[in-house]
Design goal:
Layout lengths: L39 H10 L13 E10 L2 E2 L2 E2 L15 E10 L14 E9 L2 E8 L12 H8 L10 H9 L5 H7 L14 E2 L4 E4 L5 E10 L4 E2 L2 H8 L5 H11 L5 E10 L25 E10 L4 H6 L12 E3 L3 H17 L79 H9 L2 H15 L4 H14 L1 H20 L21 H13 L1 E2 L4
Antiparallel strand pairs: 1-4, 1-12, 2-3, 4-5, 5-6, 7-9, 8-9, 8-13, 9-11, 10-14, 11-12
Helix pairs in contact: 2-3, 3-11, 4-9, 5-13, 6-13, 10-12, 11-12
């Protein structure tokens, strides 16, 4: 075949740099084979192909992301930010810090639909002048459980049956029925808030409680909230099914397309601030991540904005290998005693060491922008810059009298909380599992409450009667009407299913062809329709 007339292109090489003259054929004895053992280029090519993927995340496997910046206002509301925190990322009005964000679903696999009813991950990595800061949270501001001991069981229950690999809502509700603290989260999840229309049109939250520390070593509790400037849009179950039938990656496509056309999504960052302590005036523990802090007592205070204006150029390198951890804080931030936060802090970084490797922090998307100087090295794929070590590479330990690295000078006092209590394994003393769940139910718009009842009734009608009774009890404790309507909805749906006759499965016709990288016209249309079909909601 004649070679195409085109601009001269770079030459293909092996990974060792040798030019490849034939990338189409194995070396064989005769043109029909057998193949020879010294097919080095083929063996290298196929063996690398066999190892292309890293293990998918146990949670948050399906996701996408983008790059941009955070611009600080230099204030917390009307007050100087330095009153509360010495974190430099918040100081100096107008200062911009580069960042990347990964949005995700939680329980689904890597290729699961983005229309599933599931919390959405909202993880932000800021490359600050003092090192990386990861704010790892969800779109919903609360969680199912308040103690990290229950986390593996919760995720096991929410995933597919380990025997059949078939998703079964009975498993999730079996767990939730014995975890009354989940009533609040279930109320949000099965309302339209459980299916955001797109990643651009959803709120974000740190979920857990952190601390800010100022120059005096004084600390306050803090909650983080991201508010989308594009507005909030959520899908009904019916609309989500409509979108899913056309495109299972509509939210990924929507985010990429919006940035590509210059319609950069933007969020404003707010914080709520509370003095650290027991707070007897509250009917819940402020460290309980199943609770919202009431806005009238702890107002949202703006501190900056985030803009996403750059798409990834290599999804695997920049998004799939992006690694986050709740323990990745900078000076001026600290941990609260939130039991879920402490458990997440070990788990999140540990899973990255398993997934990506011991040196996952050397992957460019994870590496900080400031200088790294550490004695933590070696291991698989260690390729750190020798200049990032000490002046004497032989001194890979500290302390030393003759060289190597030394500790930084402490410029501001550390926050030093004090405790006087016995070590124990007990739940908190103010669980109040139903109060806020009832408030959230009553605060939903009429159409949102109707959708909530319908969704819960449809799913619970498939569950064991014991689970149905337990869930109706929990909902009734939150609000009498709530429990009664779910009970009536289960009975109605059960009757419908008993009367339903088996229908023939319709034939399937061949679909239209996809243009490479663009998706079908239906898929593109579905991505656009997700925004139009999303119903606007007020912030909560």
């Amino acid at each position: 075949m004649p070679r195409e007339k085109e601009t001269k292109r770079d030459t293909l090489t092996t990974r060792q740099g040798r030019p490849v003259t034939d990338n189409q054929n194995l070396r064989t004895i005769g043109d029909r084979g057998p193949a020879t053992m010294e097919n080095y280029h083929f063996l290298e090519k196929i063996s690398h192909f066999d190892r292309e993927e890293v293990p998918e995340r146990v949670v948050h496997a399906r996701g996408t992301g983008a790059f941009g910046y955070f611009e600080t206002y230099g204030k917390v509301g009307d007050e100087p930010v330095e009153k509360y925190t010495r974190a430099k990322v918040f100081s100096g009005a107008g200062k911009k810090t580069p960042l990347m964000v990964r949005f995700s679903t939680v329980a689904g696999s890597k290729d699961s639909p983005e229309t599933e009813r599931d919390p959405r991950g909202f993880a932000v990595k800021m490359y600050t002048e003092d090192g990386n800061w990861d704010l790892v949270g969800n779109n919903l501001k609360i969680f199912f459980i308040r103690d990290a001991m229950k986390f593996p069981d919760m995720i096991h229950a929410f995933k597919a049956d380990p025997v059949s690999n078939v998703p079964d809502p009975t498993r999730m509700f079996d767990f939730v029925s014995r975890s009354p603290e989940a009533t609040h989260m279930i109320t949000f999840l099965f309302s339209p808030w459980g299916i955001p229309a797109t990643y651009r049109h959803m709120q974000g939250s740190g979920v857990n409680t952190y601390k800010w520390v100022n120059d005096e070593g004084e600390a306050v509790l803090v909650k983080y909230h991201w508010e989308p400037k594009q507005g909030i849009r959520n899908l009904t179950q019916e609309d989500a099914g409509y979108i899913q039938a056309k495109n299972v990656a509509h939210a990924t496509q929507d985010l990429y397309a919006s940035i590509e056309r210059g319609d950069y999504p933007e969020w404003e960052l707010y914080v709520q601030i509370m003095e650290d302590g027991y707070h007897e005036e509250l009917d819940f523990d402020p460290l309980d991540d199943t609770k919202l802090w009431p806005e009238d007592k702890f107002p949202w205070l703006p501190v900056g904005r985030m803009v996403l204006d750059e798409n990834p150029t290599d999804f695997h390198a920049q998004i799939e290998q992006a690694s986050f951890g709740t323990g990745v804080l900078v000076d001026g931030m600290d941990f609260s005693d939130d039991k879920m936060l402490i458990g997440r802090t070990f788990s999140y970084s540990d899973t990255q060491r398993y997934r990506v490797g011991a040196n996952y922090l050397q992957v460019p998307v994870n590496a900080p922008k400031n200088k790294v100087r550490t004695n933590q090295h070696r291991g698989q794929l260690d390729h750190r810059n020798p200049e990032e070590g000490s002046g004497d590479p032989s001194i890979n330990y500290e302390p030393s009298m003759i060289g190597g690295l030394e500790e930084a000078e402490e410029k501001s006092p550390q926050h030093q909380p004090t405790y006087n209590a016995a070590a124990m394994t007990k739940p908190i003393d103010r669980p109040n599992n139903y109060g806020q769940a009832g408030e959230t139910y009553r605060n939903l718009a009429d159409w949102e409450r109707e959708e909530l009842i319908k969704n819960l009734s449809n799913v619970l009608s498939q569950c064991d009667e014991r689970i149905q009774e337990a869930m109706v009890y929990h909902f009734s404790q939150a609000d009498e009407e709530y429990g009664r309507l779910v009970k009536e909805g289960i009975a109605k749906k059960t009757e419908e299913m008993e009367d339903m006759q088996e229908e023939e499965m319709p034939g399937r016709e061949a679909g239209e062809q996809s243009r490479y990288g663009k998706g079908t016209a239906n898929q593109q249309k579905a991505s656009e329709e997700a925004v139009d079909k999303g119903n606007e909601s007020e912030p909560y």
